[in-house]
Amino acid sequence: MKRQESIISTETAMQAPTNTKTFADLGVPAPLVRALTAQGIAAPFPIQEATLPDSLSGRDVLGRGKTGSGKTLAFSLPLVATLSGGRRQASRPTGLVLAPTRELATQITATLEPLAAAAGLRVTTIYGGVSQGRQVSALRAGVDIVVACPGRLEDLMQQKVISLDNVTVTVLDEADHMADLGFLPGVTRILAATPNGGQRLLFSATLDNGVDKLVRRFLNNPVLHSVNEAAEAPAQMTHHVFHVGGVQEKKDLVHRLASGTGRRILFMRTKHQARKLAKQLTEAGVPSVDLHGNLSQPARERNLAAFSSGEARVLVATDIAARGVHVDNVELVVHVDPPMEHKAYLHRSGRTARAGSDGDVVTVVLPEQRRDTQALLRKAGISVRPRDVRSDSPEVVALVGEIAPLRAPAPTVAPAAKPAAKRPDHHRAPRGGHQDRTSRGPRRRRPRQGAQAQRGASTGG
User: Fold this and answer.
1) Exposure of 23 by Cβ count < 10 A (0-12 exposed, 13-18 middle, 19+ buried)?
2) Is residue 125 domain-resident?
3) How many structural domains are present in the chain?
4) Between the CA of residue 389 and those of 8, 145, 246, 333, 364, what are the distances in Å?
5) In 3D, which of 238, 244, 192, 240 has the Cα closest to residue 218?
6) In this predicted structure, which of 15-19, 124-128, 133-137 has the lowest mean pLDDT?
7) Domain end point (choices 367, 400, 433)
8) Is there a domain that residue 445 lies in?
C-alpha cells in the first residue's frame, strides 16, 4: 500500500555540537542519557538535535547527512527508547536496522549495544560471509533489535528463521549506497514484510537512484532533516592535489604520506594493489593493514580492530571501506589511485573530518591521470590548485608533520617440521639383517583367490 508522499523539510547547517540543548532537553529518556554520559557523550550534534524530537515522538524521518555527522546515534536513541519495555520473542524482533555492508552493520551494533543494555534490550547482527549458525541461535534465543545486511536477512526469511511481522521501528541507513550496490529490490521486499503502521527512519546522502521511490512507498508523511547539501564536502576538510612525475615518484610520495604519527587511510583501485601496498609499508616499518573484498570476515574484523586500536596506523583499502568503515580521528585520506567517479571521491574522503574534527585529503596524480582527475574534482565541487611535488617537497613535509618511529615487522615464524611418523611394530624389518623394504620399492600384491576375491569384486573392492 502506498504511503503518503508529503514531506516536511528542514535544513540544518553542519557544525560541531552547539551545546544549546542537551539530550535530556530533546526528550531522550534518563537511562539512555546516563549511558551516553558514561561514554563521554554530553552534547548532541546538529542532525541529532534536528531529528530526535520528531523520531522520539514516533514520526517517520528522512535524514540527509553524510557519514560522520552523527546519524548513527540519531536513529539509535529513538529506536531503543521506543522499544524499551517490550516483550521479547524468539525469531521475532521488534526493531530492524538495514545497512549495506558488514563493516557498517558491525559498527552500528557497537553503537547500539550500550544503549540497548541500559534499556534491557538485546541486539544481534546478521550478515553474509560467515556461517549462519550463531546468527540463527541468537534469533531463536530471542532478540529485540536486528542489525542486518539485506542478502543474509532475506536468506533467513526464506528459511523461516526470522519473521518481521512484529517490527515496529525500521531504520534504513545509507540507502543511497544500497542503491549503488543493487540492493534496492531486496530492501523493498524486506520493508514490505514489516507492518504498515510501523515507524520508518531512512538516512541517505542523496535521494537519487531509486531511493526516492522507497521514500514515497514506505514513509508516511515524513519529516526531512538535511545536514549540509548532499554533494558538498565538509567544511573542515582540506583538499590537496599532488602531481608526480612518474611511478617511482608516486611510490616515494605515498610512503612519505603514510609515515606520520596519526591514522591514515590509503585508497587503491584493486584488491591486489591494496594487499601489496600494506605489505610493503609494514616491511618498511610503517604498521599497515589492508581491507578489501577478498578478506574473510574474521580477517576484516581483525584488521579493522588493529587500525582502530592504533596497532596499525595505516589502513590500505579499496572502495569497500569508503562507506563501511567508521573510525574517528583519521587525520589523512590519500587517494593513491584516483576514483572513477566524483561520488566515490566524496565517500572516500568522508573517512576524515568526521563529527566536527579537521582532516586532509590528498589525491596523487600521474601525468596521464591529470585531465580525468580535474574533471572528477570539478563534479565533486572541489576547487584546489594542483602542485608538482616530490616526497621531500615543503608542502608534503608540512602536511605529514612528525614522522612516527619505524617499527620492525613481526618476524615470520616458519612452521615447525613434522616429526617422522613412527612405524607400527608390524612394519619393522625382521631381525637378522634383512634389508628395509622401503629401499627395495613396494611389495607386489598377490592376486586374491576364491570366495575372498569374489567378495572383493562384488563390493567394488
Assistant:
1) buried
2) yes
3) 2
4) 49, 51, 11, 17, 10
5) 192
6) 15-19
7) 400
8) no
Shared domain for 102 and 72, answered yes or no, is yes
- Does pLDDT of 15 surpass 70? no
| Cross-strand bridge partners of residue 62 | 202, 224
Does the pLDDT value for residue 235 go beyond 90?
no
183's CB contacts (< 8 A; 6+ apart) are 100, 150, 151
Q: Render pLDDT for 283-301 as a digit per residue (tens, 0 to 9).
A: 999 999 999 888 887 888 8
Domain of 268, CATH number, reads 3.40.50.300
Q: Print burial letters for 368-382: b (CB count within 10 Å at least 16), e (below 16).
A: ebeeebeebbeebeb
**Tens digit of pLDDT for each residue in 391-450?**
999 999 999 999 989 888 776 555 555 555 555 544 444 444 444 444 444 444 444 444
Residue labelled with grid coordinates 534504513: 172
pLDDT digits (tens, 9 = 90+) for 64-83: 866 566 889 999 999 999 99
Inform me whether the pLDDT recorded for 278 exceeds 70: yes
Q: Is residue 121 part of a domain?
A: yes
Query: In sequence order, which residues have a C-beta less than 8 Å from that of residue 311 and are 6 or more positions away?
Result: 287, 305
Say whether both 205 and 318 belong to one domain: no
